Model the fold of this input.
Amino acid sequence: MPDQNELHDLVGSEHAAAGSEYSAGFVTDIETDTLPPGLDEGVVRVISAKKDEPEWMTEWRLDAFRRWREMHTPRWAHVQFPDIDFQAISYFSAPKGDAPKSLDEVDPALLRTYEKLGVPLHERARLAGVREDAPEVAVDAVFDSISVATTFKDRLAEAGVVFCSISEAIREHPELVRKYLGSVVPKPDNFYAALNSAVFSDGSFVYVPKHTRCPMELSTIFRINAENTGQFERTLIIADEGAYVSYLEGCTAPMRDENQLHAAVVELVALDDAEIKYSTVQNWYPGDDQGNGGIYNFVTKRGACLGERSKISWTQVETGSAITWKYPSVVLRGADSVGEFYSVALTRNFQQADTGTKMTHIGPRTKSTIISKGISAGRSQNSYRGRVRMNPGAKGARNYTQCDSLLIGENCGAHTFPYIESKLPSAMIEHEATTSKVSDEQLFLCQQRGIDPEKAVSMIVNGFCRDVFRTLPMEFAMEAAQLLEVSLEGAVG
Amino acid sequence: MSLLNVDDLRVDVDDKTILNGLSLTVDAGEVHAVMGPNGSGKSTFANVLAGRPGYDVTGGAITMDGTDITGLAPEERSHRGLFLAFQYPVEIPGVSNMEFLKAAVDAHARMRGEDETSAPEFIGRARDAASRLELDVDFLKRGVNDGFSGGEKKRNEILQMLLLEPRLAVLDETDSGLDIDALQVVAAGINAFRNDGNAVVLVTHYQRLLNHVVPDRVHVLTGGRIVRSGDRSLALELEDKGYGWLDD
Ligand SMILES: Nc1ncnc2c1ncn2[C@@H]1O[C@H](COP(=O)(O)OP(=O)(O)O)[C@@H](O)[C@H]1O
Ligand SMILES: [Mg+2]
Done:
């Protein structure tokens, strides 16, 4: 019998990518309720009012807004872009009409949008391209500033799992939201986190109760559609004692000539013996081959392993965005807690990525693993930035970091900025880094065997990413492999 | 019509002439040995047949089944049934041998307008071929040539040949670096591959492989051209007297 790994390895090779370069680049023509560009306290109040928020939430936002006004955009990342005019952006856009109460009420134009993206919003269907026997996935669909549908809510509720939009959670589960919102990423954490805290629109909320294994994969599909609009997603996931949840985030946007801002905050909380697996397949529009347009993806993602023996695992596959500025991190507070970061970041044309992680070891015997794979093609710049910190209490803590860069062509760049902060002699920190190229010899071997050069590059790149793809659920590994293949079209020659 | 016809081939590398009027004809069902001292241009010849970039073909032509392939891309030659076993196989870490083999076999199937083989069926075929070459199953899961011993790399080339079933297999020093057991396994693989419809060009420095795979013709390459051709006994004579004997 062929074993799972063998089949897993063949997944990428079986699915030749279909057609166009950025197939998610279409625009949905739908009437919207969009705020005029600009940001002041009034706008913050309007957003809060549109979402029917309680007073405490409005105040929370206003506090964040006042702090944000005192802050400056960070300059330390290895990326370059013109100053963003924050008064030229619209901070809220939603399809017109009342929020649908059930799937039947969702606008057919929206249903078709998600269908086209391969994420049908009905509970019979699986994600497109996935085998019949694949596990079911519950989906929260966020369109510009609001969640338009969440599937399988009833089935999840039977298990006690709450999966809804953050707006709904603020109304329905205020005690959990008040306790944990901003507890992992404080409002003034950084410029974009403060901005997000003031104007966040929608995102997902997950609560998995004690000793519960979430019965299916959860996923949120973010779609930016409106022009000149920022998307400020806010996600909060709480795994109570002994709980387990696997969550996937996907992102796409139409092709537009202007840059658009996506500034998300994601907070994860794991209590004793809880485990959260968070996977991202990020495919925001990267801009055209001249460097015009594309999403600015400035994101703060952090998890807190509060409980003993808790575990948080980030896997990200980043192929999109004009600029990516993102460091999914773990604060390892509970004794024996585990943090993991697995990343594939591919840049081409004029894309810039500065991405990595921070592992902060506070509790004793905490353990972290970082595997980063950066692929640069075209004229792109790809940086890994990581920080491993061992606090004095983290006796017996361990970190293993592996950073590999792969270059395609002569005009791209790969950079590694690893920072290690430790005064603990008992801590074990290992760091390995490699840089390699897709060589002419490798390409010729593939061609000699009948494989065309584009397919060869995509196979070599997929192989380079294998350690990371293995951490993804199989159907998402397939999606990730296909995404790389499409992204690499035209990268050779 | 001959399977392979090389006519007056002239090749420069870095403005230095390496092949200088090489001609060779191979018919279906035949095994030819091309022998010559180190640096005589054997690998250059093998690589130019396969269309490797970096070689400047300044004259002559290569035809397969009557079609001129001199200007074709490497993958097009492969699709026409030309296979090269490399003298120094390159490593592709992370790409499993199995995935690589399937991608190659699928590419050929698509060219013939056939369906790709299903993953489980292909895994079965690959394992059969591997066991014929006395390779462990785990060998198929490892990265292409990644960390393989010299002998494993050479057997892996033969494995690829068995799965791709080319019309013309050019084997560049596949015998070098093999111990006697591995040499016999490789030779058995080549003999199993031979049939009336295909042909093999064995490029080699030594004649020991020819004890196991008996050639129909033996050619000696020096000074950028075939200077002498004969039957099997020519190889034995060369072994006896050395390449210097030809200069006399
Ligand atoms: N890529 C190359 N660049 C420069 N010189 C080369 C290259 N390939 C082969 N040569 C030269 O061409 C000649 C023939 O080499 P080669 O074909 O490898 O011979 P053989 O395989 O018979 O030992 C040698 O002088 C070698 O140095
Ligand atoms: Mg040679």
